[in-house]
Design a protein that fits this description.
Order of helices and strands: EEHEEEEEHEHEEE
Distance between the termini: 19 Å
Largest sheet: 8 strands, antiparallel, barrel
Radius of gyration: 17 Å
CATH architecture: Beta Barrel
Number of strands: 11
CATH class: Mainly Beta
Amino acid sequence: MFDKDARIFVASKDLDQIIPRWEWRTFSASLDAVERAIGPLADVVPRDSSEIYVLSVHGPQNAKLRDGLVDIKRLQQVDDDGLELWEPVFKAKFPLGHSDIAVAFSEWHLPLPALSRDSYTIEEFFNSLIAAQPALRVARSISRAVASSSKAASPSLYDCRSTCMLCRASHSSTKIAA
């Protein structure tokens, strides 16, 4: 797993600790029928969070920024039922250095822009680097995750409200991940 005191987590290091996960998403104003089918979750522990997503038009890789960390995962496969297998490939905390930014832009299939600083805060990263990229979209998201506190595999429900700032669209969704 990621050590919060470490600078970087890349797929080429610690491969035995990378755990790809299967996720399924659906978008609707209400998924009451799905929630009834899953049934009540045992030992429910709700968690509210605010994230910023950076999405590339060049592929399904996405970056999530939460709690001062940037986390990039890569889509590995989609099964016949739409279940998606995602692999975490990079995690770093702000401020980001040149090598951190190089990894992110490589995952987005974009050339590394000229870097005028030794490191970038979240604000500098967005204002100087992301905003200048027409191939990237930024979405702010507020989520409530409702999951079992048990370590056994069980479904989790995520209610998510998101606004895509660059494409000016609003979305509401509920994501279910096993």
